[in-house]
Amino acid sequence: MPNDKIKLQDSSQQNTSASSHKLNLRNLTIEDYDDMLEIMNLVYSNIGDGIWPKSDIEMLLKIFPEGQICIEDNGKVVACALCIIIDYDKFGDNHTYRQITGNYKFNTHDAKKGTVLYGIDIFVHPDFQGLRLGRRLYDARKELCEHLNLRAIVAGGRIPGYANYAEKITPREYIELVKNKEISDPILSFQLSNDFHVKKVLTNYLPGDSESKAYATLLEWNNIYYYDEKEPIIGGQKEFVRLGVVQWQMRNVPSLQALLENAEFFIDAVSDYKADFVLFPEFFNAPLMGLFNEDTAAKAIRKLASYTEELRDKFVEYAVAYNINIIAGSMPLYNDGELYNVSYLCRRDGTWDAQYKLHITPDEKSHWGVQGGSKLRVFDTDVCKIGILICYDVEFPELPRVLAEQGMQILFVPFLTDTQNGYHRVSKCAQARAIENECYVAIAGNVGNLPRVKNMDLNYAQSAVFSPSDFAFPNDAIVAQATPNAETTIIADVDLSLLKELHTAGSVRNLKDRRRDLYEIKWLNKKNSSN
Predict the structure, then answer these.
(1) 142 annotated active-site
(2) Under 8 Å between Cβ of 350 and 504
């Protein structure tokens, strides 16, 4: 989750999105009120006094601008979250919505003595349901709570599904059924899935809420990083980043849709663990070449390239829908009579970037006629700076060093190797790159066989996440490692703050101690150093 000190800012990246969405998480302004009003009219039609007048929003922005958050899509606000800081001891657990908001005047906001972030509203445009925008807003609130060193987030939650059960069971029984997933409530189920717990049932919380029968749940999320004495809020980058790595099984597929279903399964599964990135292997789409088995290898790879842009666009959609940054392995790209091997970074804000493979293996040249790219760059994401090198490229230490000098923190390496000695070349070089450049390196490969697919019949891999080698990291410099040659995933957390400490106070300091008076790495064609 991005941040700029307290202000939450998620500026969209420079490339044009392949999807219709271009999401931007930011602080609300009064100029957004017309968009807000449109959403409120749609979602609060069944709630009395559900619409916030413009004067109330102006007041919130005056007293607590950092706490009013929205998500815009292509410049139009489609989701909002409003909150205040309160001294919770003054109210306790038995309160109404009117009391907690000071009769909607927000004079209960107390930034000096308050220890609780109170959520007073959150709403998403009905046309944008399914994009998990609510989860992004909740994550932003949690981040704000941590940065402001507040004890918890508290909110009164509506239970609109209770209207269907009110004649049969009590609100407490209804809540237990929702907790046990026997039934689903559109609001409570979502809140529980976002790590909130129910403290108690509130009565007459919102008298005009006929769907909830005026009942509400008192919900709380506890900030485990809360400490008694406040310290200055610094930095803006996440310290812990969660990585998902897919060790992909090569299997014959009858269609593009079948391949996409396999890919979406892993994206969905990894996103459930709230990973920030998911990495696929090099040429993970090769099973589609089985559809062109009668062709030569060179013709088959070019026909495979005809799917690449559609696959890229679909992965951008998945990145937005599942709120996860996707490194879409690599795919062949046929452009102006030249064939390339390209990896796509599909960001969860709806934008994408590409990294071409620079060093082409003899096999790629002889069987397919692949050409090498000429650009190398570090990519900005909402989490950290990353680099992408495709398979053979990681065996050339100059490339990661160029990326490290541009601030790369995590290097992603999609690879494809057919034998164990090929795999060990990639993995051992990747591990060396993590040590040399004081960064994390994630590698993802393919496993299994592809009968009747020329030049892609065998695969061997043991995907992994590597770290630098020092006391703060695992003794073997391996954060996580997959079972060899089996379809599986890795979920691993990496601590970026450890990299900062390593750069300045490590046992050895590979980046800092270079003899720049003796040697240097120079990118000769400056115009090709970035897109």
Answers:
(1) no
(2) no
